[in-house]
Amino acid sequence: MDLQNARPVVAPEVVTVLIIEDEPPLLDLLQQLVATIGCEVVGAATLGEARGLLKTAPHCAVVLTDQRLPDGMGLDFCKELRAFYPNSIRILSTGFIETDVLLQAINQGEIFRFITKPYNAENVLTLVRDGIARWKTDRENERLKTALIQKNEQLGNANTKLAAALDNSVDLCMDIMDRYDHLLAGHGERVARWCIAMGRELHLSETEIDTLRIAALMHDIGLVSVEREFHKRQQVGWEKLQAVQKAGLTSHPATSAQVVQFHPNQAVAEVVKCHHEWFNGNGYPEGIAYDRIPFLAAILAVPDAYDELPYMRQDTKEFIERNVSVRFHPEAARIFLHLFDNRPEFGEREREVTVSQMAEGMKLTNNVYNSLGVLLVPKGTALTDRHIMRLRQYNATEPIAQRIFISA
Ligand SMILES: [Fe+2]
């Protein structure tokens, strides 16, 4: 059987019906009859002739074949067709065939219908019409399936591009915060690490954890609208700030929420807006309390406060415990303290030091350059006495103008 090479590359628009019948007058009659329904009809008296036609003729939508033919059985030919032309609609005409064999052939999909001889013109036309309708439906379904797969691929590509664009936008926000104040971007990254760990402890969904991560990274982006020297109220003292500066600070959650509106996950903006709300309602900007505060914002609030605390470890723990159900949601505080006790690596914070405040063991969190831009000590270095002595020597002859940050 050499039908594989005969498979057409493109299905034609014209619907063709192949009729295989070994009695020439009957074949002629059938061709004329079927042609009345407006399709192209080709005829073959043997299976060999039919195979020859399939090599050159257009793809046949419907094949009506007699069962008993001089060079083989129509049912066997239907099996061949099924293998090489799975979309062809096969109709078998028979006068002498065992019913169970026929039923099996239908059930296994080898033939679409069968028709008994002698032929009844109306039956032949009905079956051929049904066959053509089925062929068209199958072809349309195939076209829709292909189109759907293509659309899904396009959608997948668009989603990948959108995700990359969103990541770039988040990176851009982090870059803006880093340029505004290196501590601000580092704060977002550390709080995000806490939030991911707390989310996992709480068995939150991956979507919720990702919402928390993005919100944590960008929750303070609104602070870049506040003058640099005032944004750290605990550094300058809240009471020393003017009313306009206080307003700038207290409105930063709402400003941050406006900035992160670009993210399609709208929960991010809601979490960002509520990260300074207190459990008892004494927070800002809305002063909402208890369950009115989104739980993800209540989670973020704990490491956010921790990372800005100037306290030592034990004082920090006492501060968190003292504020359970006051400032912090009890469950969020419980999970935070659990991680605080068991995962000390999360406890690292960052602070600014001068060259004279440097001490052995401090880890640099930014590169330190001299005034000519030459790298003196790279980020990540655990300072030794030798590093410190070298930096002090440089600083004495040509003061290091940049800010220096360490983790502690
Ligand atoms: Fe904040």
In words, what does this structure look like?
This protein is of the alpha/beta class and 408 residues long. It is built from 15 helices and 12 strands. The protein has a 5-stranded parallel sheet, sandwiched between helices. A hairpin with a 5-residue loop joins strand 10 (368-369) and strand 11 (375-377). Helix 5 (121-180) packs across helix 6 and helix 6 (182-201) packs antiparallel against helix 7. The termini are far apart. Fe (ii) ion (FE2) is lined by residues 219-220, 252, 275-276.
Describe the SSE topology.
Layout: E1 16-20, H1 24-35, E2 40-44, H2 47-56, E3 62-66, E4 68-69, E5 72-73, H3 74-84, E6 89-94, H4 99-107, E7 113-116, H5 121-180, H6 182-201, H7 206-218, H8 233-236, H9 243-250, H10 252-259, H11 266-273, H12 295-308, H13 313-322, H14 330-342, E8 350-353, E9 363-364, E10 368-369, E11 375-377, H15 385-397, E12 404-407
Helix pairs in contact: 5-6, 6-7, 6-12, 6-14, 7-11, 7-12, 10-11, 11-12, 12-14
Fe (ii) ion (FE2) binds next to loops.
Q: Could you name the CATH topology of the largest domain?
A: Hypothetical protein af1432
What structural class should be given to the helix and strand makeup? alpha/beta
Order of helices and strands: EHEHEEEHEHEHHHHHHHHHHEEEEHE
Mean pLDDT: 88
Secondary-structure arrangement, i.e. CATH architecture of the largest domain: Orthogonal Bundle
Name the descriptors.
408 residues; Rossmann fold; Hypothetical protein af1432; 3 domains; 12 strands; 52% helix; binds fe (ii) ion
